[in-house]
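Open question from group meeting: does this chain pack into something compact, or does most of it stay loose? Before anyone orders reagents, we agreed to write out a predicted structure and look at it together. Recording both the input and the output here so the notebook holds the full record.
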Amino acid sequence: MADDQAFPTAVIFDLDGVIRDWNDEEISEIEVAYGLDPGTILAVGFGTELGRAATTGQLDYRTWMNAIRAEVTRIHGVEVAGALDAWEANVGLVNQEMLQVLRQVRSESTVALLSNGTTRLRRDLAVLDLTDEFDVIFNTAEVGIAKPDPEIFRYVLQELETTANETLFIDDLELNVEGARSIGIRSHQHVDSGSTAEFLLGAGLTMRKI
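Structure tokens returned:
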């Protein structure tokens, strides 16, 4: 840890791609079985203005999902409804290696979740038994500002009553990492549990096994 860096009193984790993995291959196979190209539903849900509206709370989960269904069936027909049902039912899988990393961090520091989630996020966390793994949960759909906007990071720092220099941020998307770095938060783009643990060690955490 550099001399000018404070000990990290708070570590902010992203959810998707860090703590939660998506079983994309399984969902893609279902889409193909219904005659859709892999990733079709995801592209409608998050590759359009619908995604931004859902992750900033302009649309609640049900309204968002209904809009996705309407658009996909408009283009591909009502016979693809089964693929949409499977996509909606999916809650992903917990990355057990990263869950252990999170628990090691939590033994030394406040652990927060910051997710560009929909209004269904807290339900997903409960289903995955993740709710109690975090000291604080920040869902952008509840705050009204989504990553990578620097304002969401300023909001989180204020709520955690900490400073950028005392805070670490981990996300799998470079754009979000840059958003946090823009206000001085030490940030790491997650690729795997090993490199993320090395970043945390380098920031001053001991990462003792628990």
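Observations to bring back to the group:
Residues 44 and 71 are 8 Å apart (CA to CA).
The beta strands are 10-13, 20-21, 93-94, 110-115, 136-139, 167-171, 186-189.
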